[in-house]
Amino acid sequence: MKVKVCGMTDLHTVLTAIQYGADAIGFVFAESKRRITVKKAKEIIQQLPAGILKVGVFVNEEKEQIEKIIEQSGINVVQLHGDETPQFCSYFTVPVIKAISIETEKDIAEIEEYKCDYILLDSPKGKYRGGNGIVFNWDLLKKCQLRGRNIILAGGLTSENVVSGIKLVNPYMVDVSSGVETDGKKDPEKINNFIKAVKEYKREDIKC
User: Between 3.90.470.20, 3.20.20.70, 3.30.2310.20, 3.20.20.80, what CATH number should domain 2-200 receive?
Assistant: First the structure.
C-alpha cells in the first residue's frame, strides 16, 4: 500500500516522511494555508530520490501555468483538485490525479468520465479543495464500481482510521495532510504513526 503525504512545505519534514516510507509528496500551488512557492518546491524536489512521486496540486489553474510550474519546479505528477473537465485532464504529458469530492452516488458515477492515471476520492469541498480533515461516507463505495482504477483515498484520514478505510475501499494509495498535523504543522511522530499503520496492514483480497 502506497502513501502520499500532502501539503509539505519544508525539506526536513519531507525527508523525514520519505525515511518513514512515504511514496509520494504533495506540494500545494493553489490557495491554501499549505501553499508553497514554486521556488521553494524546486529547492526541495532537487534533493529528493528519483523514485518518489512529486505531486503538484492545482485548483482550476490554466494549463499554461501548470505546464510552467512542471518545468520550473520538477514535479512529475499533476493533481487537479478543482472543476477540471475530462478533456482538460488529458492535456498533460505527466501522470494526472483527478480529485473527486464524494457526497452522493452521483459523484462516484462521475469518475467514469475521467480516464486519468489516478482518481483521488476526497471529502466534500470546505474552505479549501482538500485538506479539510473531514471523512466522507465510505459506505458509498461498497458496490465496488472502482475496480481496475488506481484509486487514492483521501479526506480526514488519520493513523486511527486509515486501516478501516483501506479495508472498505481497497485503494491503490492513501493520502494524508491534516491528519498528520499538530496545530496546523506537519508532526513527524504523526507522520510516522500514519505510515506505519498503512505499511503494517496486510491487505486481503477483496471479491466484488
Answer: 3.20.20.70
